[in-house]
Amino acid sequence: MVCASAPTMSRSVSVLQYLVWFTLAGYAILYLKLRWTGLHRTYRAFSGYLLFTLLQGGLLAVVPWAASLMRGRPNRPFATNAYAYTWFATAPVMWVLYVLVVLELFSLILQKFKGIASLGRWVMLGGLATAVVLSTLTLSVDLSNAGEKFRILRVFLVVDRGVASSLVIFLLILAGFLTWYPVPLNRNVVLHCIVYAGYFLSVSLGMLLRNLNGSAVSLPVNIVLSSVTLACLLAWIGFLDRAGESVKVRVRPDWAPGDEEDLVAHLAAINSSLLRTARRQ
């Protein structure tokens, strides 16, 4: 392995610091845009995720500095474990928010099919369970790295990767449903689904690389993940708007016209049948 020189390492740290501040600014701008356009009422879980990310980012920036200041070492914010403890405390909340955002996306996709949505809760749980199982089968690779010095950190990183991988698999299952049944969706939901899937895929791959190679690749992995996060934020900021709620698109527009109408009609018939069954009960 070729070791990076001190000036190169210093430049990389500076790049990461700028990226972190840019991404935090992106989260703030996106949240304000959702509030300004009123979309926060539609994307409640996503808005909560944005707010908590800002809170987590602020805590990760302030708590280590405050801890080092209390110990009389204001210029060494990472000389204590305050950063790690703060991340350990907030990471589980972030995992829950990840899941809530995906469940919100699921409900938005089936919002016009209430009957299917009621049955879809079981389908959704089955899809999540399948995704978790498939993701868990790959986690032994992450745990095989004995180079990680801190056991608790390894466990948290593996869980982080497992959550991201599970949600990627679930979103792929959802995409398969949308490909087979060309349900008309608004542009915002389609954009949200694509960007969120790309984000989780990058997080999953980045965490896998980090877990396999240890802390030696933490800096470049964090730079790449921060860059991808910033790109996703720019996509949301640029294209998630009020007009996108009324513009209808289809995930797969190349069906033969007759087949497409038949599939959507079949889906509507299933929905109506489920609603009638629910009313009798």
Brief sketch in words of this structure:
The protein contains 9 helices and 2 strands.
List the topology elements.
Blueprint: H1 6-37, H2 44-70, H3 82-109, H4 114-136, H5 139-143, H6 151-180, E1 185-186, H7 187-213, H8 218-239, E2 248-249, H9 257-280
Antiparallel strand pairs: 1-2
Helix pairs in contact: 1-2, 1-8, 2-3, 3-6, 3-7, 4-6, 4-9, 6-7, 7-8
Description:
This protein is mainly α. The chain has nine helices and two strands; from the N terminus they run H-H-H-H-H-H-E-H-H-E-H. It has one domain (15-280). The chain has helices spanning 6-37, 44-70, 82-109, 114-136, 139-143, 151-180, 187-213, 218-239, 257-280, and strands at 185-186, 248-249. Strands 1-2 form a two-stranded antiparallel ribbon. The N and C termini lie far apart (66 Å).
Supply the helix-strand structural class: mainly alpha
Alpha plus pi helix count: 9
- The Cα radius of gyration reads 22 Å
Distance between the terminal alpha carbons, to the nearest Å? 66 Å
Give the overall shape, derived from the CA principal axes: globular
Strand order of the largest sheet: 1-2
Q: What is the chain-wise order of helices and strands?
A: HHHHHHEHHEH
Largest sheet: 2 strands, antiparallel
Strand content: under 5%
Number of domains as seen in the coordinates: 1
Mean pLDDT across all amino acids: 76
Counted beta strands: 2
The unreliable regions are 1-6, 273-281
In helices, the fraction of residues equals: over 70%
